[in-house]
Structures are given as C-alpha cells and as structure tokens.
Amino acid sequence: MRALVAGEVGEPADVLRLESRPVPTPGAGQALIRVKATPVHASDLHVLRGRYGFSPEFPAVGGHMECVGRIEALGPGTEGLKAGQRVVVAAVPAVPGPQAAGTWQEFLVADVRRLLPVPDRLSDSSACQLAVNPLTALLLVTRELDVQPGEWLLQTAAGSTVGRLVIQLAGHLGIRTINVVRRRAAVEEIKALGGEEVICTEDEDLLQRVAETAGPAGVRKAVDCVAGPLGAQVFQALAPGGEVVVYGALSTHRQADPSALTIPLHARSVIYETKTLRGFWLNRWFGTASGEDVLHMLSQVRSLVVDEVLSIPEGRPFPLERFAEAIALAETPARDAKPLFVFEDGRDEDDR
After folding, report:
1. What tens-digit pLDDT sequence spans the chain (352 residues)?
2. Domain 133-280, what architecture?
3. Which member of 33, 86, 284, 310 lies 3.0 to 4.6 Å from 69 by CB, making a disulfide possible if both were Cys?
4. Across the strands, what pairs with 71?
5. CATH number given to 2-130+314-351
C-alpha cells in the first residue's frame, strides 16, 4: 500500500515521501480500514514541524485526526461492526512502525471504539471532516462553555471553518453571537451566514463595539482561536466573571519559537474582575473522554450534519502523489476549500 511518511521532523514539503508499506493486520478490538478520504489540517503539518502538542517517533505516517473509509477486516473480539461497513475514524494516534496509524495511507488499523458508522448519503468529503471541526464547535458551545439560549457568545476568526460552524450551531440553539473578523470584505458574508453582530478589527474598536452591542450586562462567554493581542482584547472585553476558552493560536501560525506563543493578559481583569482563561485541545479531550462519550458526541455531530443543521464545506481532492500542492493549499489564507487526500477503491492485490 502507499503511505505518505515523514522521515524526520521538519517542513512537511521537505521531509514527506511517498512510500510502499505492507498492509497492517488488526489485533484484538481493532479494525483494518481501507481509507477513502482524509483531510490535511494545519495541525497535521505542525505535528511534522515539531511545534504541536505532541510529537510522534519518526519515521511517521502523516495525518492524525480523522478519515472516512470502509472496514476491510476485523480483529478478534470485535462486536457490533462488520466488514464492508462505512465508518469515520476519529483521533488516530501517530505511532511508528509497520502498524503506523496515521491517516495519510491507503490502509490503517484503528481501535473499534474510535469508529462511527456513517450513511452512504453523506459524501466522503463531509464524512472525513466530521471528527475535528464540527465536533470542536459542538464541544466548545455545549460542553466547555454551556452557552444557553439567549446568551451572547463572542468569538474570533468567525470566518474560519470552526467559526462558521459555531454560527450555524448557535442559530440552531438560539444563542446570540458577536463575531470578530479581520477583513471588512468578510462582514456581509458572516451576517448572511447568521452571525448576529460582526466586528471588523480592520477599522473598528473591539472593546467599544462589544460594550455597545451587549449593553450593561456585557458578554460572559467567548471562544478564541487567534491568541496574541487579539485574544487579550477579547479577555478584556468580557464582563466581570467572564470566561474565554482558547482553542488555537492563528496569530502565531508561522511562529516556530514556542516562547512567542503568548496572550498578554491584563492583571486587573484577572484579579479584580475574576475573569478566567483556559485552553481546549481536541486531542486531549479524545485522550481523556470515555469511548462511549466520544461516540455519543460524534453521533450528535453526525445527526447535525445529516439533518443539514451544520454544513461542512466541500473539500478539494488530491491524490497522495500531489502532496506538495495539498500542503500549500492547507496553509493558504482565505482558501476556498480544505485539501483532502483521496484514494481509489482499486489496489494492487500483491500488497495483501
């Protein structure tokens, strides 16, 4: 089988190579998945650069979060699933060796507790993107902040994939959103999507606009994926007792120095206004949540997408051979589609 493998830590375009590897064998409680489509996330690239929350042992197959495929074979002791079933694979650990479970390969072995059956009417593009962005939006709004109908939710990077999903979910749940964007051209698009209020940092003062919008009661809940000075402004804009959950650091997207990944908070807001700021990392949630809870939340996401409450933008397909193009697109500002590695059904039988 073909696999996209990084031989060492470094820039993905420099260290990735297309290799031929033996098809792995599922063990107890595992399934062999024939991958159909898998996205290229910025986090996948940061893993290879060595600047993410974990680092695999190299050489490592790229991709670590999600894919869609069909069950090719089941290991001993598996129940409730069958060969040929179409499934989403969530939270694949990046490990070395012939059983490497990165998603950027034609076959992978996965724990059956990380498999969610999906209907054929859901496209490969939508299915392979279920387990990261929509799940992040759902967890942030309902679990991390427990935002209630009628409450304000302030969010940065409203035009990002997660930001757009938060807007859709908020509309479904009756939550009011204040959405921060950095370009004036994005304002009308966010409003058309359902964003109740939009603040453009290109020509507006964030603190003033939040105060004008929310009135004396203010805003007590926010999500931020920019960090840096903008994240600090969001923190300052909250009412006393407010809380910010940070799930990304787009302001330092190309920053390789870990010491530069900062949010300069005002001590007055922390001490006298007792505001709190904490992080959210989906990988950690996958690692600490029970298998039952993971499948429960993924099932909710699946229902929201199938019922068209949440809309996942169609991805742009690439074969593994064009990985350099896919990587470049993954980090292109304001791109029109997320790159996806796609695989044909056919394969060389000698691989088996």
Report:
1. 999 999 999 999 999 999 999 999 999 999 999 999 999 998 999 899 988 888 888 999 999 889 999 999 999 988 889 999 999 999 765 443 444 579 999 999 999 988 999 999 999 999 999 999 999 999 999 999 999 999 999 999 999 999 999 999 999 999 999 999 999 999 999 999 999 999 999 999 999 999 999 999 999 999 999 999 999 999 999 999 999 999 998 876 655 566 667 899 989 999 999 999 999 999 999 989 998 999 999 999 999 999 999 999 999 999 999 999 999 999 887 677 999 999 986 444 444 4
2. 3-Layer(aba) Sandwich (3.40)
3. 33
4. 33
5. 3.90.180.10
Distance CA 75, CA 26 (A): 5
Query: Does the global pTM surpass 0.85?
Result: yes
Residue 268 has, within 13 A of its CA and on its CB side, a CA count of 4
- The helix (run of H) or strand (run of E) holding residue 296 is helix 291-306
Domain boundaries, the chain: 2-130+314-351, 133-280
